[in-house]
Amino acid sequence: MTEEPLVPRAPMAAALVFAMAALAACVGCADDKGASVRKNAADPSAPRAGAEGAGGGVEEATSEKSDGDGAGTSGTAGGTDGGGTANGGGTANGGTTSGENPLVDDDFVSAHWGIGSLGNHAAEIRDHLPLVHVSAGDLAQADLGKTRIILDVQWHLFDLSTKPAKLRADVAAQLAHLKTTIEASKKTIAAFYLIDEPDLNGVPRSVLEQAIAETKKVFPSIPTYATYGHHCFDPASTDAACAQGQLPADERRIAPSLDWVSLDWYTDGTCTPGLEVFAAFQCAVVGGVAKLKAQGAKKIVVTGEAMNLFLKSEFELRIAVLLAQDLVRRDADVIGNDLFLWANLTGANGFNGITSFPELKTMVQAMGRDVLCKRPGGSCEKLSIGATSFRTIEGGVMNGFRSNGTSYCAYASQAAWNAATGLSILTPTLPLLHRRPDLKFDGTCG
């Protein structure tokens, strides 16, 4: 399997699309390495647009949205879907729902590109993250313990050699071969990642609906999942990136039969001016989730920041990841935080993934274990943080922020905050954001 070079996403979008060459005959592609780069056909950058709002501070907490007790069963489920059935998981925009998915943990955290052509990071992920993306060709090296798999299947379903894209002519044979591969691997598949950014990759909603229908014929109970680029699923969007897929506005809408739906738009300054993580998150992610809900999405996944593609400090990256996980825990319709990416992307347009940031990695692993431990028979470790290291925003000093009670500012770096306060950020931690929508963000602390 060969890869095409990275290409610009759109002049105004400062974004990259990682696309792979269409495979001519792929009833062997289930055995090929690395189904594609990024989230399958991915983009690690993207502009943003959406609602504004202030961020919040960081406060000590282990969980706010009810943790519940079960995130489902941890054993090996059987079933004809290979690796176990998923009990539906529901559909995003109506459709039928056959109950909660026992293979998907509540408020999960997961990552793209932990295992595959960008490197095998199973040792860092196994028994830490509840879920991780793997392609069929990499199942053999996916020694993951309790960690379950989101299987990337784009190249089994779509012919992306033309725009608009179409369903592969041999899609039935592809899915039959995929079923055999999954069953032989004896791995637990929690969801199928059908396509990355169908709106930007030129996959019409009608074609995605066909792909979902074909997949459900063979795997009726495994949830289907796709990520949309920016807010291009909104027909009213005027984002320049949306022209990339060359689709009519109505064909960019989310496919109503998708079980899970996500969007990716990172802190690149195109949704809000500059590289300010709080404003960008409110504009791109919170605003995007509201737009997804407006189209009927019921099971939404947020795609965490594209690591240091735009945000260059580990301090900022940790804040970005915590913002996403906080949204997962506060919003009942947001079921998980799917981080992009774990591995490092090399080359002229490359950037580092979670593996290259020790404190971020430790924090994400702790967040994942906090989910895993809630499975039946699990034992949760105490995630504690020093009383002096985290204060609520009302207290005046927080983890990286300062407030006067009516507004707040962010320190430019962890070092700057440490110097100003004499406090340090401890890891692993699982803070949630203390929401004070009445507080106005007023920039970098002087």
Shape: globular
SSE pattern, N- to C-terminal: EEEEHEEHEEHEHEEHEHEHEEEHEE
Fill in the CATH topology of the largest domain.
TIM Barrel
Overall strand count: 18
Mean pLDDT: 73
Major beta sheet, specifics?
Answer: 8 strands, parallel
The number of helical segments is 8
Please state the second-level CATH architecture of the largest domain.
Alpha-Beta Barrel
From the alpha-carbon coordinates, what is the Rg to the nearest angstrom?
21 Å
Beta fraction: 15-25%
Helix content: 10-25%
> How many domains, in number, for the residues?
2
Give me the secondary-structure category. alpha/beta
How are the strands of the biggest sheet laid out side by side? Answer: 4-13-12-11-10-9-6-5
Overview of the molecule:
This protein has 446 residues and is an alpha/beta fold. It folds into two domains: 7-56 and 65-372, TIM Barrel (Alpha-Beta Barrel), CATH 3.20.20; 393-444, no CATH class. It is built from eight helices and 18 strands. The strands form five sheets. It has an eight-stranded parallel β-sheet with strand order 4-13-12-11-10-9-6-5. Strand 15 (401-403) and strand 16 form a beta hairpin. Helix 3 (171-185) packs across helix 4 (205-218).
Question: What features would you highlight for this structure?
Answer:
alpha/beta, 2 domains, 21% helix, 8-stranded parallel β-sheet, 8 helices, 446 residues, single chain
List the SSEs and their pairings.
Blueprint: E1 7-8, E2 16-17, E3 57-59, E4 108-111, H1 122-125, E5 131-135, E6 148-152, H2 154-157, E7 158-159, E8 166-167, H3 171-185, E9 189-196, H4 205-218, E10 224-229, E11 260-264, H5 277-294, E12 300-302, H6 314-330, E13 334-339, H7 358-372, E14 397-398, E15 401-403, E16 407-410, H8 414-421, E17 432-434, E18 440-444
Parallel strand pairs: 4-13, 5-6, 6-9, 9-10, 10-11, 11-12, 12-13, 16-18
Antiparallel strand pairs: 1-2, 3-17, 7-8, 14-15, 15-16
